[in-house]
Amino acid sequence: MNNTNSIISFKVDGVLKEAKGKQNVFSAYVKEENAMMIIGNLDATGDQQIALTITNFHGVGEYYADEETNMEDFGGMYTSSELEQSYYSTKGKIKITEYTEGKSIKGEFQFDGVAAIFVIGNTNPTEVTKVFSEGKFQTIIIPTPAMTP
After folding, report:
1. Handedness of CA 60, 57, 51, 138 (dihedral sign)
2. What is the pLDDT along the chain (149 residues), one digit of tens a residue?
3. Whole-prediction pTM value?
């Protein structure tokens, strides 16, 4: 894969979002945690970002998030200066379609993201849900230094 081909695209409630280039779209594998992270910076300031995390990573295959069944191999988070809060995945999946160890990763994702909006004087937050759909990515894997305790 060519480094300039790094891309991530997805829809938030039907609105297309996209980032391109190795400076904006990259992934990292943390061997000690057996976790793969895929990051997409959608603007130059980093105020709009999507982060996908896979735990128990084993390469090509499907990974799920479901709060109701406690399946937590996949997590998504979206932040934007346009929104009051970050959105965290409660249910969804990521499918890794291609993986070359230490070099590149490609796949698809979708999830329901929830933000808890707190109002002063109200102890019960209001939950707001957004649908993250038609997600696709392909990116290089950047090397990570070994973690030491």
Report:
1. negative
2. 554 589 999 999 999 999 999 899 999 999 888 999 999 999 877 788 999 999 999 999 999 998 777 778 999 999 988 777 789 998 999 999 999 999 999 999 999 999 877 667 777 777 889 999 999 999 999 877 654 44
3. 0.87
Q: Partners of 101 in the beta sheet?
A: none
Q: In sequence order, which ranges of the chain are alpha helices (DSSP H)?
A: none
Contacts 24+ apart (CB under 8 A), 49-58: 49/78, 49/79, 49/80, 50/8, 50/10, 50/17, 50/76, 50/77, 50/78, 50/132, 51/76, 51/77, 51/78, 52/76, 52/94, 52/109, 52/137, 53/77, 54/94, 54/96, 57/29
Query: What's the rounded Cα separation, in Å, for the pair 112 and 117?
Result: 16
Q: How far apart are CA 128 and CA 125, in angstroms?
A: 9
Task: Please report, for the chain, the start and end positions of each structural domain, with discontinuous segments joined by +.
Answer: 3-142
Residue type, 55: T
